[in-house]
Design a protein that fits this description.
The structure is a single chain. The chain has helices at 2-19, 45-50, 61-64, 68-75, 123-148, 181-187, 191-196, 200-204, 206-209, 212-228, 233-240, 244-253, and strands at residues 24-30, 35-39, 79-82, 95-102, 108-116, 153-156, 167-170, 176-179. Helix 1 packs antiparallel against helix 5 (123-148). It has three domains: 2-148, Beta-Lactamase; 153-205, no CATH class; 212-253, Arc Repressor Mutant, subunit A. The longest helix is centred in the middle third of the chain and has 26 residues, at 123-148. It has 260 residues and is of the alpha+beta class.
């Protein structure tokens, strides 16, 4: 969980700033339902500790029955377990809104939870919390994905829901080397297709080529590399960290001619 915790830090802080002032705490639990990170007001610590809303407590379904963290992990979907929807009577004063967090390969990795013991928590505010938790979970996934593929280009996949966190990682040869769960589901990307080799153009189509800003940026990088290398393709390819064949293909694509 170390990398996931680093990836989640900023989102946990922002989420707590949004909900901490109204008596909620924020927790990130591992895939076993054990909170490993927590944000909460000092004034509420004693109450939350008493209710088990603390790091190290086990909130799996096997341990606590129906509850926000455990049921979210079991069903792998966002949900809210409100008060008497909890299985054990000792948890019926809690309202828990939770979203699953998936790793860079689309596997279930964690659960992000906002819990409250307030009796006056309205249905409307619970819905707002649900949206905030879902957005934060997707930001954590995206940050973790960028950390894993820090040496690759990260592109937004062409899916209908732009905020779904559908990202792909593309290497220097324009091969897709990674995809978030949202991208895998939307584009039919599997571990097998990635292993066989998947060209970014095959799944992005004309959207990448039609992006003039991206094309202009890539053309400029190629032209500068060729200029610095004095037209030497091998030297330019080495400076860019790509093969000569890839560079020749890119030069032809952009109609860049070697200087005489």
């Amino acid at each position: 969980m170390e990398r996931m915790i680093r990836a989640a830090e900023g989102s946990l802080n922002r989420l707590y700033l949004a909900v901490g002032g109204v008596g909620c705490c924020v927790m990130l639990a591992d895939r076993d339902g054990i909170p490993v990170e927590r944000r909460g007001a000092v004034a509420d610590d004693e109450t939350f500790d008493e209710w088990g809303l603390w790091t190290g407590t086990v909130w799996s379904e096997d341990s606590e029955g129906t509850n926000g963290i455990g049921t979210c992990l079991a069903d792998q979907r966002p949900l809210t377990i409100h008060r008497d929807q909890h299985f054990f009577s000792r948890n019926t004063l809690l309202s828990c809104t939770t979203a699953p967090v998936f790793d860079h390969e689309g596997n279930l990795a964690a659960a992000l939870d906002v819990s409250s013991c307030r009796s006056d928590l309205t249905e409307g505010f619970v819905q707002l919390i649900s949206v905030a938790v879902g957005d934060a979970a997707r930001r954590i996934e995206a940050e973790n994905f960028r950390m894993v593929y820090s040496n690759a280009r990260i592109l937004l996949a062409p899916v209908a829901e732009r905020g779904a966190g559908a990202l792909i990682a593309v290497d220097q040869d324009d091969l897709v080397v990674g995809a978030t769960r949202s991208a895998r589901l939307a584009l039919g990307i599997t571990r097998e297709t990635l292993a066989r080799g998947l060209l970014a153009a095959d799944i992005l189509g004309d959207q990448v080529r039609a992006n003039e800003d991206l094309d202009d940026a890539e053309r400029g990088v190629l032209q500068r590399a060729m200029a610095r290398a004095g037209g030497n393709v091998s030297a330019a390819a080495q400076s860019l960290g790509i093969s000569r064949a890839t560079l020749h293909r890119k030069l032809a694509r952009f109609d860049i001619r070697r200087p005489h």
